[in-house]
Structures are given as structure tokens and as C-alpha cells.
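Pair request: fold both.
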Amino acid sequence: MPSPTLFSWFSLVLSVVVASLWPVQVAQAAGVASRQHQAEVQEDCVVLLHGLRRSAWAMSRIEDSLRGAGYQVYNRDYPSTQATVEALAASEIRQGLDWCQANARGQVHFVTHSMGGILVRAYLQDNQIEQLGRIVMLSPPNHGSEVVDRMQDWWLFEKLTGPAGQQLGTGADGVTASLAPIPGEIGIIMGNRTVDPWLSWMIPGRDDGKVSLDSARLAEMKDFIVMPASHAFIMRKRKVIQQIVTFLQHGKFQVASADA
């Protein structure tokens, strides 16, 4: 059995060694933490914009998947029925850009549903975005919706959709008629299912229950696919979300259209 004196000397030596190593360990840990923080603030940022009469919850699955893929994500409610497209674009996109500037250092991407895509297009008519990355639009009424054409004079429709909803028709007075091509790599995902057969009846050609496939297309788009989803639920579909992540990472979708 070791003597008390030998045990005391051993304890003293061990204490000195640990004490001498502690600053190094702390410094190493601080260095790792610093590098991790630096990596975090250099990540790309994605601004999510929900559609008319929707909320941030509608985009929550997309948000979770993008965070899991390493992106900083801005996802907030905005008052989609309380102002015009131009006013919403100016206020809401500016807030998203400010948040990204404070929380990331990479490119700024956009993922939008329905009218959210029109807000991005409207904003980019008169504004430049530094480090603009890729844009994924889900079910965008890029040339308006015939549903609005048919219903915009109804008192209840106007009450429910507000000023912005009234601007989404297909005519020359619709907001989309005056929008010029925008910069950035654009990928568009449309659905070919409907949960609104009555509304689909109002739309010529193939549609997702609110928007025709032809209306969604843009001359400047880089890729376009059609998935088995409806306008109302396309942003909740797992396979659609996988395509969103793929486009943000690679600039193209992973699979061909389900409705080529």
C-alpha cells in the first residue's frame, strides 16, 4: 500500500499537470467555438414567403428541412390581406433581408408559395439584392389567376383577399402584367392536383386548383417541374421539399416532372 507521503506527492504532481494543461484546453475549446460561430454566420440564408391568407406555419416543414440542411431561415407571418403587393414587397422582403444580414454572411435565397413569389418579383423591379442566390417558387401565379378574374368583383372575395388579392388577375390591370424579368436562378414547382374542383373549372388547361401550369412559367426560369400536389398543400409535401433543397444546393431539380 502506498505511503501517505508518496500519495501526497503524486496528487501534487497530478494537480500541477492538470493546471498547466487547463489554459491550453480552454484556449482550444474557445478556438473551436469561435470557428463554429464563424461557420454559422457564413451560412447562406433563405427567406420564406407564404401565400395569400396563409401563415408562417404553412412553410414550417420547409423551414425545418432547410435548417437541417445548414441554412439560416427567416420565416414570419405577414399581413397578406392588408396591403397591396407593392407595399407588402417593400416591407416584408426588407425585413427578411435585414434579418439575413444580421444572422448570415452568405447568399440570400428565397422560397415562396403562391403570392409570395409575386412579392419577390415586385421587389426586384426597383431594388437590387447583394449576394442574391436562388429562388424557388411554389405554385406562383406569375401571369395571374383566372379564379381572380371570375371572383374579384364579389364582395366576399374582396373582403377575404384584400388589396393584394385584387391585383392577381390575368388582365392588363393585374400586377403581374407590369413585372419585368428578374435576376437570380429561378426554379418553379407546380402541382397537378386539386382540392377545389369548382375553382379548377374556372381555369383553362391543367392547374393545381388555383393557378394554371402555364401561368406559373417565367421566360427567365432555369428549371420547372410538376409534382403530384395541390395549390393548398404543395408546401407540406415531403418530395416537394426535397426538390427545394436540391435546387438551392445545385441550381436544378433532382427529377423530371411528374407531368411532363
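--- second member of the pair ---
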Amino acid sequence: MDIVTFTVGDIRMGVPFPRLALSVMVSESRMVIDDAGKGTVDATVQVTDLRRKFGFATLSRQQAARVITIEKDGHLTGLVINRSSPVMIVRDAEVNPLTGTDSPFVTGTVTVDGEPVFLFDWDALLAFDEPLDINALFNEPMAEWEGSAESQFLETIVREAVQFVEQDHTSDVIAALADESKFVIAAVMPAVGASIGPEFGMGSGSDMSGQLVNGLKKAGFDMVFNAGFGHDMAAMETAFELRQRLVSGENLPLIISSCPSLVKQVEHLHPDLIPNLSVNRSPSQMFGRILKTYYAEHLGRSPTDITVVQITPCLSSKSERTRHDLDGVDISVTTREVVRLLRTAGDYELQDLEEMAFDSPFDEATGAGILSDVSGGTVQAILRTVGELMTGADIGEASCEGICGTDAVREAEIRVADTTLRVAVAHDLGHGNRVLKRVKDDTTPYHLVEIMACSGGCA
């Protein structure tokens, strides 16, 4: 089904696209809204201010607010919100259905861009005249919903990611490309080349990395690199760190820090596990820092003259980029944003361009580096590197079979030399939270933990 998602405070909601009629910005002075969120625009259009409906009163007065109109009982009604997204396709199989006994208003949840989205029974919700507290939307205590999408919303902190949902940074890229004092580098995550195809009429899974390199060069980028090299670097550094911790016996398990949402989850919800986080930067930040340092020296310029643009499917990378302790990436744009950039950059179609190779050096990434975008891929790369460090030989893919698969939580014991390493892999933050609780309760003595916010990985 096609849905449009939007945010109200910290809640991300979804409405089926066929019910959506219009999305406009309206001056707050044109609205009259009561405490329950009911009111009108220009004394004629009926609206429900969802900011007040859900108790976000501090968000209720701005210079202007976004209003979307949906069909209800054959008529249009307005919803006052904060931000809305473009139309996106969600497969029915991806929806986690709920029943009326679970919630009188929520019919299901789905994970979009690594964030939980509530799908409401809009007729029932809008017919309810009283203000609502988010905790009252469910009849069961939220603490008992471990591993569910609802628990992901309440028990994980992805708010820095949420606030960037509607921020389009293509204008920042265009400004950097137009600035002759800047040397602009694109670092393309492996998943982007494989996911961009449908936007240009190609089949899902078609690898358009070569055409993408050509398109980015035509748009004005000075260099275009395969960011999979950063995954290889991160896997190697984390493998050294794991070996050191195995020797010292301290701060185990090692929790891989590649996923920005997972790092934020640990920092805000499980601060006692911060020492367990890998000290390594994310692959994007690590690679970006290398690019800045290398080209500043190579060109005889200041690192501030080198602009690194990360092209990624990850919204949380936008939040990560703003952290004061991380400076490897200057601009982070999503796959959808780079599509818009390419469509405005010239009169060509990406699929019609000749393939071009990524720039060198850093143009080669191992299969492990590419697979690091997939849940379990990072663990596999780290374990194989640790195996070489401890035995001088590759332990092989077969030894890591237990961590492959699609289950939300996977556990395995991997034999490396004379050591049996206990490993946990989880994708989506709800199931990841379950693993973190096991670590805190010391119910399972893991050595290595990988958690990715998005279902299946960075795809």
C-alpha cells in the first residue's frame, strides 16, 4: 500500500495515500483550536490539531503549521501536524497488525527508514473528542511490549533522526558544488547503487553504481568513492579492538558502533553499557576523516576546503553528522535526495549514462565490506578478521553460517582457534533492545553484539 508518513511531536504516523487530498502550510493566526484539538481554519474548514490531541501543547503555536486533509465519511477533514513525507510504498507483509484488544485506535505498525510508524484507525481516532496520551493508546503496559514496534518507539531514542525526516540537504550539496574554493567528494554507500534503480525505471536490485558515478561527476563532484572501503576499515579496527578485549577480559561484550541509531539507543537508554560500545567511529565517519586528511595533504589544502558528501539510505546519519565529536562528513543525503539532485542537475536520464568506475585509491571494497550493509555482515567481517589475527588463516564463511539469515535475533557460537566466541545479531531496535537487556541482566555471556536499527540492515 502507499502511505504518507508525518510527525507530531515525537510520534511518526502514517495515513494511506488514497485518503490524502491536500498538504499545505497554514498560518496559525487563521486557526481557532480548542484544548482537545478540535477547531477550524478560516472558520470554515474543520481540523483536528494532532499536536494538542496527543498532548504536545508546547508545539501548538508556530508562525505556520502544516495541514493535511484526509477523506472521512465522504468529507474532507484537516489534520494539523509538524512535518510530512513523500509518498512511500509499504508492503502489506511489512505491517505488524494490531487488534482492537491491543489498541482502540492503532491498527498496525510498520518500520520506515528505521523508525516505527503508527497506522491509525483514523475514523475512530477523529471521532474521539477527548485529548489522548500516547501511553493511553494501548491497553497493555508498554514495558510488556518488548521487541514490538510500539516498544521501539517508546524504548529507543531516534529523535535526532526523526527531526531530520523532512530536512532536505540537496541545496547544501548544490551550494558546495558551486563553491570554487571547495573540493567536493561523494562517498556512496554500497546499498545506494542497488536501491536507486526503481527511481529511474530499472528493476529492483539493479546495480546502477557505475551510472551513479557518472551522474555525480556530471553534477560537479570532483571525486566519487565507494564507501564500502570504510566498512572494511571499520571491520579491521573493530577486530583489533575485539582481540584486545578478549585478552583483557574487560568491557565484554563488544557492541559494534556502526549504526548511529543503536549508539543513540545505548547512550540514552542503557548508559551503563556505553563502555561496551566500540570506540571506533562509524564506517562513514571513519572513511570521511580519511578522505579529508588524505586529500588535504595531497592537494596542499586545509581539511576545511574538503567537503565530504555522504550518500546513504540511512536517515540517522544526518543526526550523526551534527555530533560535535564527529567531523568526517560535512553533508549527508539520502538516496531519495540524490535522485532529486541528479534530476535537477541535467537533462539526462541516469540509466542512459555510460558506467564509470569509482575513483582510486579506495576504489576497491571486499565482499565483506559490501555485505556490511546487511544484518550480520559486519559481524562476519569482524570474526573473519579476528580469525586471521589469532590463527593466521581465514576461518571461512562456513564458520559464520549461524549468524546469517533473516530472523530478527540470531545467536551463534563461532570457534576461533582455541576460543569459542558467543555472538548475537539483531535487526530493528525493538529486538535489539531485547539483546541489550540480556547483556545487562548477564543472562547470556556474549563476546560480540551487532544491532542494526533497520529491518534487514542498511538497505
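Observation on the second member. The longest strand covers residues 64-72.
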